[in-house]
Amino acid sequence: MKTTTYPSRVGETPIGLGLIAEETLEEEAVVEKLEGRVVPYSKIPENEIQNVFEVGDDRWIVPQNNARHLNHSCDPNCYIANNLDVIVLRKIYEGDELTVMYNEVTIEAYMKAGAVLPVWDDRRSFDCYCGTPKCIGRIDRYVVPVPADPNVRDVRMGTVERRGRAMFANRRLLKGELIERAPVIPINQKQWPSAEKTILSDYAFDWGEHDEHAAIALGYVSIYNHSYAPNAQLEELLDELMMEVVAIRDIQPGEEVTINYNGDPENKDALWFIERKTRPKPRPATRKRGI
Fold first, then answer.
1. CATH at 119
2. CA 41 to CA 141: how far, in whole Å?
3. CA within 13 Å, CB half, 138
């Protein structure tokens, strides 16, 4: 049986053995593959509990090849594909350590679970010394990494337990400051009955001078969560087919950016939804300009 040769080797790192790139590698290069016995979590040997990788619903692999030396990083340069290949995320240079994230939950899996993170087994906890700006120090919980979007610098998408996705300030945002400007796709009255039968109905805003139409907002507009004490407000620009998110008070770095789904930030009327695991979508934008 032919053995596949990968461009990696086991070598010394500041924290012990690790997997090292033997050559400069481009994005999507395959550097190793997880090989070993796949077992349910309850069947993992006690002495291997910190060496396993989750590969499916209650399916864990105990690697028996060089892949068992893959170390964790809070900002990894590799990921494990569905076929168990270890694949490069970005360009890696010869001699660099190859790393993956041990405690990652994808945004897709997080949302499918009702915006609830899996229970972490304390036996798998350890102090992280990856030294990256994203390092959380102690690996004792699952996290949902969300890639940065170069098109939006002032806010970032993150997650809130039991509420799902949310938007957070990257820096201090001042009252009256434009946070995001996004185009919309209008849906007229004739088209709406068909759209209403699809998932789009959860994402649509009322649109038009008299809210006679609907619209789907692009960008991150549908991700902002509701609050009766919001720090931002939606505005419609009808003639430009755009929506804007504008700060209505100073917002601190790391603070969640919220809007009132009723439109008016002072409106305390009961909303159309009952509290549930996944976040509902906002009501229409609040002000209209251009008509």
1. 2.170.270.10
2. 17
3. 6
Q: What is the pLDDT of residues 33-64, one digit of tens each?
A: 999 999 999 999 999 999 999 998 899 999 99
Q: What is the pLDDT of residue 31?
A: 97
The Cα angle at residue 270 between residues 267 and 275, in degrees rounded to 5: 125
Q: Which domain holds residue 265?
A: 155-289
What does the alpha-carbon distance between residue 196 and residue 244 come to, in Å, rounded to a whole number? 24
| 167 and 127 housed in the same domain | no
Widest CA span in the chain: 73
Quick one: which H or E segment has residue 194?
A: helix 192-195
| Statement to judge: residues 120 and 57 lie in one domain | yes
DSSP 59-113: EEEEE-SGGGGPEE-SS-SEEE-TTSEEEESS-B-TTPEEEE-TTB--HHHHHHT
Strands 204-207 vs 164-169: parallel, antiparallel or unpaired: unpaired
State both tokens at 192: 């709406």
pTM of the entire predicted model: 0.78
For 141-157, write each residue's pLDDT tens digit. 999 998 878 778 899 99
Is 207 in the same domain as 263?
yes
CA 19 to chain centre: 27
79 vs 99: CA distance, rounded Å: 8
Provide the CA 168 distance to its chain's centre, in angstroms: 12
State the number of CA atoms in the 13 A half-sphere of 41 facing the CB.
Answer: 12
Count of Cβ atoms closer than 10 Å to residue 231 Cβ: 21
The answer as to whether 258 is a domain residue is: yes
